[in-house]
Amino acid sequence: MPIKNNRLTAEEYEQNFSDLHPPFDSRESALVEANRCLFCYDAPCTKSCPTEINIPKFIKQISTDNVKGSAHTIFVSNIMGAGCSRVCPVEKLCEGSCVYNLMEETPISIARLQRYATEQALQKKWKLFERKPATGKKVAIVGAGPAGLSCAHVLSREGVDVTIYEKESKGGGLMTYGIAAYKVTPQFCEEEVKYITSVGGINIKYNQELGKHISLAELQQSYDAVFLGFGVGLARQLNIPGEELEGVVDAIRFIYDIRADAFHTVPVGDKVVVIGMGMTAIDAATQAKRLGAKEVTLVYRRTQSEMPCTEAELDIAKLDGCSIIWLAAPAMIKGAHGKATQLVCNTMQLGEPDASGRRSPVESGETFTLDVDMIIKAAGQIPFVELVNNNQLKHAHGKVVTQMNGSTNIPGVFAGGDCVNGGKEVVDAVQDGKLGARAILEYLNV
Amino acid sequence: MADISANFLGIKSPNPFWLASAPPTDKKINVLRAFEAGWGGVVWKTLGSQVKNVSSRYSAVNYNGSKVMGLNNIELISDRPLELNLREIKECIKLFPDRAMIVSLMADNTREKWHELIAQVEDTGAHGLELNFGCPHGMTERGMGAVVGQDPEIARLVVEWVMEKATIPVITKLTPNVHSVVPSGKASVEAGTNALSLINTIQSVTGIDLDTFVPNPYVAGKSVFGGYCGPAVKPIALKMLATISQDPVTSKVPVSGIGGVSTWKDAVEFMLLGATTVQVCTAVMKHGFRIVEDMCEGLNNWMDEKGFKTIDEFIGKSVPKLTQWEELDINYHIVANIDQNKCIHCGLCYIACEDGSHQSINLQYGKPYNTYTIKEDECVGCNLCKLICPVDDCITMVEQRKGPEYINWKEFQERGMPLNDH
């Protein structure tokens, strides 16, 4: 059975891609949860949030019916608080450190409460921030993803005029193009970008790619400072025979297509294997299943204790009916008539700890073969090495090297987000953008 | 199995739980349902002159998502025809002869009117009368309710009128809307009342609508002070009950305790401070008559555990435990201890002590969990951290006496001992 699209009815697509964690359906239900919050002092949840949102405060504000104040508390630390409430792996961040866990009780649903407050702000278009008078300073930002937008918002609030150059036709970066559709919809992402830029002073130029339509040198000339938040590129190559066969696709591209086009236009195989066990691998596997694939198997070369995704994410995959093969590394892809038909894997065993501290997998000498018609590669993403090299940016394997404050080796050029960290959470990128903006303001004496 | 029955001036009830004079006791259908559910007795909703009620009538105070911590009402005495009430009272007594039937009264303020009403009610076969000297709204404007209870001399006069006529036990219900309930209680006892009950509702404004600026409850754009009751008033009721139990005159008569009783534990507390029976209203208005099941079972189990065979064995047991401040033992000293195995690192004890007490808790930074420990030398043993802590028995207060002997403030001053240095 070949790879094909249009496998389901419109109703099935809608059901499969509906909201994973529906919001509170009433003020009362939000209040019940808000009132459970203990209002911790120097709260562990806040300390576990990369953007350090004052969580007890925003929850308290929900319970006092000061939802506007609550949204402001969230956005002042994390301007993408609405999106983060849907995509953050909260089980390893704020909710994971909620003190209720230590009492063996369900942690506060921080994400849902955050969504409750921020969604109202977006829907009702609350104007929660005023720009300071114009400073006359101009900053260029490359990439309208979480890092770029976060940086732009802080700068704009301080009276700096910001121009963002974005290679895609929509803002939001991986939030728009790289995350499972049942977490955030493209419409939501568009609304969020609109809400962020509604503060004023932020001009996004779409379809402008660095190194193609614009150059860093030009930006340095025309602006007082530059912030780079161009993210990371496609999935890492497997470097195994048969990788060029038809049916072997890139997870980022696969998810991009789901996000950019209607669900029914995206082709998927009958027997899909996803390689990797990070968040992107899960998003690719679950969405392949939800597009109508008959069998989806995740293949990972280590064990569950080493997997990069959270337990909660793994559960989504399991509940969607995906199978998981631990300790299996792809060795070769066999094909017929130019199309992938079989994936041969080495069975692995855990050896000595590697640089990351995790026990590294070593070949056991045994192999097994899976029948496939589609292989999705999701074993990490590759930084834009060439782009970074061409612009004389100091880097480590393509990842831009910055100081703590986000400054690069080039004076006046700052960077943050995935292009620096190699691919972390949205919330990490938002924090980088915020810190970068602060460093830029200092650099510009604003 | 303990015997939880009560004998209040010869009025017997299978348990000490009565329903207070209020909407749940205003007609036969309710009262029969209450008796079927197991209530020991009722105080029938106040009978008296004819009234007309308004709409709305109630408002409430919620706290942290918990509904009706306190309830406020502006309802008047019974607005049903007197004859109908009297007939139904009679029928209820006939159907449940083992339950206490007390009738609350509030006549127009003349001797004749009181005598007339008492005669009519006694005809029903009711076991006792309760004089409503406490209704804080509506009736006061006509010289009834709280205006009687707030002035000891008027209370004395009315009780005297009542005692001239009554042949069944008379309970005088006191208003809390006074500086002290003792003067009116004393006057009533001196005038011959057989028993006291307290408290009636406390005048209140429960809240204001922040859009219309009209306080609650809303009646066509206006509001009035209402009578506050429910769990929120229990501590005030207990204190007032204690003063009645301490006074040499008022402590001579039995008391029916009222004010926020919702559970068997609340009831036991009232009884420990001297109440022979308790009266319940708000909890029933919130949850229905069924709550009496647990009240009976809980009381029974507690009495068994403590070895009490009858309720008389513990009534008033806590009264001697209340003393004057200057009699307290100054050498008694406790300090807080945090059980690190139970601590969930919420920091609530720390910030409470730091901002609201004596800065006696250490914060050792950790990510994400701080460690909190007590500075024993600084701790004054105030209990605040223990009260705030969300984990049971995580913070305990450990005794560290300042000296072996009992020494009170008077003795302390005489000896010229050093004052606190906090």
TrEMBL record, chain A:
Span of domain 4Fe-4S ferredoxin-type: 28-61
A Pfam short name: Pyr_redox_2
Domain of life: Bacteria
Membrane-crossing residue ranges in chain numbering: none
Cross-referenced Gene3D superfamilies: Alpha-helical ferredoxin, FAD/NAD(P)-binding domain
InterPro entries reported in the protein's UniProt record: 4Fe4S_Fe-S-bd (IPR017896), DPD_II (IPR028261), FAD/NAD-bd_sf (IPR036188), FAD/NAD-binding_dom (IPR023753), Helical_ferredxn (IPR009051)
SUPFAM superfamilies on file: alpha-helical ferredoxin (SSF46548), Nucleotide-binding domain (SSF51971)
PANTHER family in the cross-refs: GLUTAMATE SYNTHASE [NADPH] SMALL CHAIN, GLUTAMATE SYNTHASE [NADPH] SMALL CHAIN-RELATED
Protein name per UniProt: NAD(P)-dependent oxidoreductase
TrEMBL record, chain B:
Annotated keywords: Iron, Iron-sulfur, Metal-binding, Oxidoreductase
Catalysed reactions listed for this entry: 5,6-dihydrothymine + NAD(+) = thymine + NADH + H(+); 5,6-dihydrouracil + NAD(+) = uracil + NADH + H(+)
Highest taxon of the lineage: Bacteria
Record-linked CDD domains: DHPD_FMN (cd02940)
Pfam families for the chain: DHO_dh, Fer4_21
EC number: 1.3.1.1
GO molecular function: dihydropyrimidine dehydrogenase (NAD+) activity
Entry keyword Iron: yes
Entries under InterPro entries matching the protein: 4Fe4S_Fe-S-bd, 4Fe4S_Fe_S_CS, Aldolase_TIM, Dihydroorotate_DH_cat
Domain 4Fe-4S ferredoxin-type, chain residue ranges per copy: 334-363, 370-400
Assembly mode: Heterotetramer of 2 PreA and 2 PreT subunits.
Similarity field: Belongs to the dihydropyrimidine dehydrogenase family.
Function recorded in the entry: Involved in pyrimidine base degradation. Catalyzes physiologically the reduction of uracil to 5,6-dihydrouracil (DHU) by using NADH as a specific cosubstrate. It also catalyzes the reverse reaction and the reduction of thymine to 5,6-dihydrothymine (DHT).
Record's protein name: dihydrouracil dehydrogenase (NAD(+))
